[in-house]
Amino acid sequence: MALLAATVVGLLLVDRVLLTPYWNRKEKLETEKNLLLDRWRQLQKLRSREKEFATEWNALIKSGFNADEASAAVTVLSAVRDWAQSSTLSLASLKPERGRPQGALKEVSFQISGSGPMKSITAFLWHLENASFPLRITELRLASRNEGSDDLSLQVRVTTLCQAPSVKQSPLPPVKKVEAEE
């Protein structure tokens, strides 16, 4: 009986000192291994899409995405003036407003006022909606200047995007052409 009790106590001691810590450590390592494998798969997937991202980034830059607020303002101001002239809209005012941060980007607003016939206003709005660079109409007011005539006034607020100045490190790379790997 004493031998049986000593054997049971010995087995419990071996279980507590050797086997249980071994199995706990093995489970912990398996969990860590699975987490690392999942992370590695995510990184591999991202790496495989690097060429696609480079192509999209280059297309965004070619479409008129600007690196800073000043170049974004110049792009919008010159385009709006050209569109107003081509659509025969009489441009009364065109005011840029201070940009506000939107994460890694900055949203720059412009207040546009003008007047003209419905044909001119629709052509001007078509140009705004089909701009080759990021441009969004956020506010639009249309009113008749003279009752019963085709003389309308237009007030529209548009916004565009540019890179926000980086504090330490921007999540977006600087605006430059990225060479895609072949």
Would you kindly provide a written description of the structure presented here, covering whatever features stand out?
This protein is an alpha+beta fold and 182 residues long. The protein folds into 2 domains: 1-48; 65-163, Alpha-Beta Plaits, CATH 3.30.70.60. It is built from 4 helices and 5 strands; from the N terminus they run αααβββαββ. Strands 1, 2, 3, 4 and 5 form a 5-stranded antiparallel β-sheet that branches. Helix 3 (69-86) packs antiparallel against helix 4 (118-129).
User: Which architecture of the largest domain would the CATH scheme give at its second level?
Assistant: 2-Layer Sandwich
Rg is 32 Å
Annotated CATH homologous superfamily of the largest domain: Ribosomal protein S6/Translation elongation factor EF1B
Distance between the termini: 78 Å
From N to C, what is the helix and strand string?
HHHEEEHEE
The tally of beta strands, per DSSP, is 5
Strand share of the residues?
Answer: 15-25%
User: Which class do the helix and strand fractions yield?
Assistant: alpha+beta
**Main sheet, how many strands, which sense, barrel?**
5 strands, antiparallel
Number of H- or I-type helical stretches: 4
- What count of structural domains? 2
**Overall outline:** rod-shaped
The CATH top-level class label of the largest domain: Alpha Beta
